[in-house]
Amino acid sequence: MPQLSPAVTAMPRSGIRAVMDLAWATPGCIHLEVGEPSFPTPTHVLDAAARALRDGHTRYAPNAGLPELREALAGKVAKRNHLQAAPEDVVVTSGGIGALLTALLAVAIPGGQVLVPDPGWPNFAMITRLAGMEPVAYRLRADTGFLPTVNDLEEAAGPQARVLVLNSPSNPLGTVLPEPRLAELLAFARDRDLWVVSDECYDEIVLDPADGAGHVSAAAVAEPERVLSVFTFSKTYAMTGMRVGYVVGPPGTGQTLAKLQEATIACVNTPAQHAALAAVTGPQDAVGQMRAAYRDRRDAATALLDRHGLPYLRPSGAFYLWVDIHDRAASAHDFAMALLRDRQVALAPGTAFGPTGEGWVRLSLATDTDLLLEGVERLATFRAA
Ligand code: PLP
After folding, report:
1. How far is the CA of 16 from the centre of ligand 1 (A)?
2. pLDDT (tens digit, 9 = 90+) per residue, 297-350?
3. Gap between the Cα atoms of 84 and 235, Å rounded
4. How far away, in angstroms, is 94 Cα from ligand 1 center?
5. Cα 23 off chain centre by
6. What pTM, to 2 d.p., does this model score?
7. b vs e for 60-90, b when ≥16 Cβ sit within 10 Å of the residue's Cβ?
8. Residue 165 in contact with residue 306, Cβ under 8 Å?
9. How high is the pLDDT of residue 13?
10. Phi, psi for residue 191 in degrees, rounded to 5
11. Where does the pLDDT of residue 209 fall: very low under 50, low under 70, confident under 90, or very high at 90 and above?
12. How far is the CA of 201 from the centre of ligand 1 (A)?
């Protein structure tokens, strides 16, 4: 057999995989390792998908997405994200992952460096490699509240630096970048002439303040001509399996972004685009209800951790809780595997998100409350043992 692509075979497996493999083989396991909303997709969204199928919308859509969906998304980002984008520069993608791939391919030059957060979502580095570029981690430090600083970026960026990936609200940390800090990071990008890929897949899941208005979009703060903004329906509308996301590019970039859809997927599944249109134009009650439930779960889980004296980073966005296990001798990986074996609770070792995650574990608040609290209780008693 001829050799498989070394770029792909050398790609490391996600550090959550080992835990997931064992978790699925563990009867009665409590799953706190994955970021999958426990809520059903809203009924009117399901109805729109079913109607689209029955009405024969089973053919190709335009590469860039249904025009009415792009129009609605331009309206959504104007209202919710304060981004002034023409519908022509909004391109519908296969989930947030497709939006990231599109954004990174659109700005790729061979060997260019992409600054990615550590701890950060592992797919940033994987997609960077697929785009023929080199991921370079910038460290997020506990003593700066795990928020990136210009110093952290300066330390990481070499002469080949080409792209800065920002992620707010953050997976795995739950941090939300405040506007003044965003402005500093964007000034750095301007000084170094970097593209910015801003992953805002959790834009509607801001837990403080209560109305969810705390998320600030990078392109709304400064440098909109160098920012590609990445969004998804997966988390906001509990539509992970529908695979609909979108990328908003600077003026005039839509055709290039659409060309990438033509080359990779032709178009996003047409019935799913009709479902997405119903999601973004229909009632938004479910979004607020889910956000409130994540907030309640955060508060209940952190109260339990407080009672047991377990330190953690209080998340203000997304639906993850970053728990400190530094006083355990085991590595985060060994700790996660032992917790799974001894107490049947699966969570993600911090090192799955980069070496700076050593001494931490991530658990997901997207799980049902009863299971979540039982899992946290077992984690706390295991750690104390
Ligand atoms: N970006 C971040 C930070 C994520 O955590 C995820 C999913 O976990 C995604 C993007 C991708 O979402 P999607 O399922 O829409 O591809």
Report:
1. 15
2. 999 999 999 999 999 999 999 999 999 998 776 799 999 999 999 999 999 999
3. 23
4. 11
5. 22
6. 0.96
7. ebbbbbbeebbbbbbebbeebbebebebbbb
8. no
9. 80
10. -60, -35
11. low
12. 6
Q: Are 361 and 285 in contact (CB under 8 A)?
A: no
- The residue type of 343 is R
Query: In the block, which residue shows the tokens 């074996």?
Result: 341
Model pLDDT for residues 61-116, shown as the tens digit of each residue? 999 999 999 999 999 999 999 999 999 999 999 999 999 999 999 999 998 999 99
Rounded Cα gap, residues 245 and 217, in angstroms: 16
Specify the length of the chain in residues: 385
If we measure between CA atoms, which residue out of 211, 179, 361 comes closest to residue 295? 211
Does ligand 1 have an atom closer than 6 angstroms to the CB of 199? yes
Amino acid at 191: D
Strands of 17-89 (E only): list them: 30-31
Q: Alpha-carbon distance 135 to 356, whole Å?
A: 15
CA distance 161 to 43: 45
How large is the greatest C-alpha to C-alpha distance in the chain, in angstroms?
60
In Å, what is the CA distance from 28 to each residue of 24, 135, 343, 371? 9, 38, 10, 11
